[in-house]
Specification:
Elements lengths: L25 H5 L9 H21 L5 H7 L11 H28 L1 H21 L8 H10 L9 H19 L9 H20 L5 H21 L9 H26 L6 H13 L13 H4 L7 H17 L23 H8 L6 H21 L5 H12 L4 H26 L5 H18 L4 H19 L4 H25 L4 H25 L7 H25 L6 H4 L3 H19 L8 H20 L15 H47 L1
Family: Belongs to the YccS/YhfK family.
Pfam families: FUSC_2 (PF13515)
InterPro entries: Memb_transporter_dom
């Protein structure tokens, strides 16, 4: 990890980014999410899938049951970014989940309304657990609950359950076909998009060097690279992985990963911005992933490299970019067979599903408390709606499900307000449409269009998604069970408000400290993984195999991504967030230490250190882990000198200092709380004395 030589390198530490500040304000409620785009492709597919499935059943079978097919078609919303070979199997499982939700809901509603309530809650809890454990992307459990909810109001008895499930399966099949429609013409588009996305995030990271947005950009780039590895790995089918096209894509994946790690070293060593040409070059590389002719000329970087020492960090980044451009310019037929970067990936193609379920049930996982919170709160919401006599109690449960997907208390409050306000506007639109007595064909087309609009905007702001989703839901519900329009609109508003309030109560009462409680253990996991990486790299008696190197990099990157996810959730878990905010410098120093450990794994011939120094490095990491576990000030003593790796020294010292400050703040906060408690006790005692007098 050569850190010397660049004209811009210096001893100063890169500025710490401002910590995430989730809050409830007008921008959070109505502003568009930065860094996201309008999902027009998903919108068109969602609209087509709903119109086809809804229309076929409504026109040729039974309009009141067409809603089940329409909702079954929402399989099209899942696995939008995964390779088609994997997507075909994953969507089939999603479709089976929809069918199971319909069967359970339909059978329960035939027994009693109370059974229907408990079936909706069970569906919400199980769907949340499975989607989180198996990393099912958005919309997650939402539409499993929606399908199960609507199945409880579709007319019929126990004998009609097979028909209900069959109609949901028909809709799921339509959604499957629409989602897979791109396979014949753009069979490798998802993989190309993933690697291109990694290059684009790399460009943003290069632009963030020397700015206060560095730590956030570093996290986003790491997530993009991890996603690209996952997507490309899923695409390695038996007939494809041996082709020149697959080898070229694997080569580009390894290039973007190596450039990201080299940029990490520059991030830690440079406090000034990089020239814009480097980021522009990375953006051009993103376009060349699918089109070799669009690859930039490596000579464009000559001006940036002029004046840099050959072994400087900045020069190394430019050199890797140039070599990656050379690899991108080669078509699959021109790719060299001896290119080691195009060799097979050292991992299993499919994730271990049972292993993922087992790990989700451990005490350190956030998945189990999240699923339990969803199950209990949704069940209580539906039961409350039924108990107080709401005609559409199932909408209460559905609203609670949508609100609880926020994750922490602050985000849940945001989603609650967005859901309520969006529903108010959406109800007006839906009521106006229903009052027109539209023909069935028009209802089918309009519902599909609203579904498409919802998918286009919901990723940028949940409020606007709620505005467009509500008319679609009203049209589907009215088709299944006709109801007076005015009463339907009024009931929808009341149910939404009640469901939002119950969802807020669930977020405030049930496991609200889950993320904050797990944050120290998550930091410890990152430090322990970083320790293993650094010690194995520096140990001159250990030779790391390619498979072991990949395993360490995978575990280190996963731990880093998890760290930011847990902190972002914990900082919104009020009121416990007050004790979480001081840990931000600790999180940043831990994150940087982890990225430096990742960078060390990239070195082919790292400079070894002596046995005594190696032991002291190992002890330094273990002392940091112990002090964090015991909530005490680290007793580091003299840090081991690592002349070839000074940034590791710097971040370990920064981490020790940040932990000392956090412990001091905890002690002061505890002292103030004890003083306030003693003062309350004195006032209470004085009141008792006054009362006796």
């Amino acid at each position: 990890m050569d850190v010397g030589g660049s004209r811009d390198e210096g001893p100063r530490r890169a500025a710490v980014a401002e910590r995430p500040r989730p809050k409830v304000d007008l921008k959070a409620l109505f502003g568009l999410e930065p860094g996201t785009s309008w999902q027009w492709t998903t919108a068109v597919k969602a609209a087509v899938a709903m119109i086809v499935s809804f229309g076929v059943v409504a026109l040729f079978i039974e309009p009141r049951m067409a809603t089940l097919a329409a909702l079954g078609s929402m399989t099209v919303l899942y696995e939008k970014k995964t390779p088609y070979a994997y997507r075909s199997a994953a969507l089939a499982l999603v479709g089976l989940g929809f069918v199971a939700a319909v069967a359970v809901g339909s059978l329960a509603s035939a027994l009693s309304p109370w059974a229907a309530v408990f079936s909706i809650g069970l569906t919400a809890g199980v769907a949340t657990w499975l989607c989180a454990a198996w990393r099912v992307d958005k919309p997650g459990p939402m539409f499993f609950v929606l399908v199960g909810t609507i199945s409880t109001i579709v007319p019929g008895g126990p004998a009609d359950v097979p028909m209900h499930a069959g109609l949901a399966a028909l809709g799921a099949a339509v959604g499957w076909c629409v989602s897979m429609s791109g396979a014949p013409v753009r069979a490798r588009h998802p993989e190309y998009q993933a690697v291109s996305g990694a290059f684009r995030q790399l460009a943003k990271l290069l632009r963030a060097v020397g700015t206060k947005e560095l730590d956030h950009a570093q996290h986003k780039a790491s997530v993009a690279v991890a996603d690209a590895w996952r997507i490309v790995l899923l695409a390695q089918t038996r007939g494809y992985r041996g082709t020149p096209e697959a080898a070229r894509l694997r080569s580009l994946l390894r290039w973007v990963s190596d450039i990201h790690l080299a940029t990490t070293q520059v991030c830690m060593a440079r406090t000034e911005r990089l020239p814009d040409g480097a980021a522009d070059f990375a953006d051009e590389m993103a376009a060349s992933v699918a089109d070799p002719a669009a690859a930039p000329d490596p000579d464009e970087l000559d001006e940036l490299r002029r004046g840099l020492r050959p072994r400087s960090l900045e020069g190394r980044v430019y050199g890797l970019l140039a070599r990656a451009a050379g690899a991108a310019r080669r078509t699959p037929d021109e790719a060299e067979e001896e290119d080691e970067r195009g060799s097979r990936l050292h991992d299993d193609r499919y994730p271990a599903l049972w292993g993922a379920l087992r790990s989700s049930l451990t005490g350190q996982s956030l998945i189990l408390p999240t699923a339990l919170r969803m199950w209990i709160t949704v069940t209580v919401a539906g039961a409350l709606g039924l108990w107080i006599g709401l005609d559409h109690y199932y909408w209460v449960a559905l609203t609670t499900t949508a609100v609880l997907q926020g994750g922490n208390v602050v985000l849940t409050l945001n989603r609650s307000l967005q859901r309520s306000l969006g529903t108010l506007l959406g109800v007006l639109i839906g009521a106006l449409l229903l009052a027109q007595n539209l023909p069935l064909v028009a209802v089918v087309v309009i519902a599909g269009c609203f579904q498409g609009l919802t998918q286009a905007v919901v990723g940028r702001n949940f409020f606007y998604g709620s505005v467009t989703m509500t008319p679609m839901a009203l049209l589907l519900a009215y088709t299944a069970v006709p109801y007076p329009v005015e009463q339907l609109a009024q009931s929808r508003i009341i149910d939404t408000v009640v469901g939002s309030l119950v969802g807020m109560a669930g977020a405030l009462i049930l496991w609200r400290r889950a993320s904050a409680t797990r944050l120290p253990q998550t930091i410890i996991k990152v430090l322990d993984t970083a320790r293993r990486c650094v010690v194995e790299v520096l140990d001159q008696d250990v030779r790391i195999s390619d498979a072991r190197r990949y395993e360490l990099r995978r575990d280190m990157r996963a731990a880093l991504v998890s760290l930011r996810g847990v902190y972002d959730s914990a900082v919104g878990d009020v009121p416990r967030a007050r004790s979480t905010r001081p840990l931000w410098p600790v999180v940043v120093a831990t994150q940087r230490t982890g990225y430096l450990a990742l960078s060390a794994l990239q070195l082919e011939n790292p400079e070894p250190v002596g046995t005594i120094t190696l032991q002291r490095v190992d002890l330094a990491f273990k002392e940091l882990v112990s002090s964090l576990d015991e909530r005490r000030t680290p007793r580091m003593g003299a840090m081991p000198r690592l002349p070839a790796y000074p940034r590791i020294n710097m971040e370990l010292r920064a981490l020790s200092s940040a932990m000392t400050s956090a412990v001091a703040q905890d002690e002061r906060a505890a002292q103030k709380e004890a003083e306030r408690r003693a003062q309350r006790e004195r006032r209470r005692a004085q009141k008792d004395v006054d009362a006796d007098l």
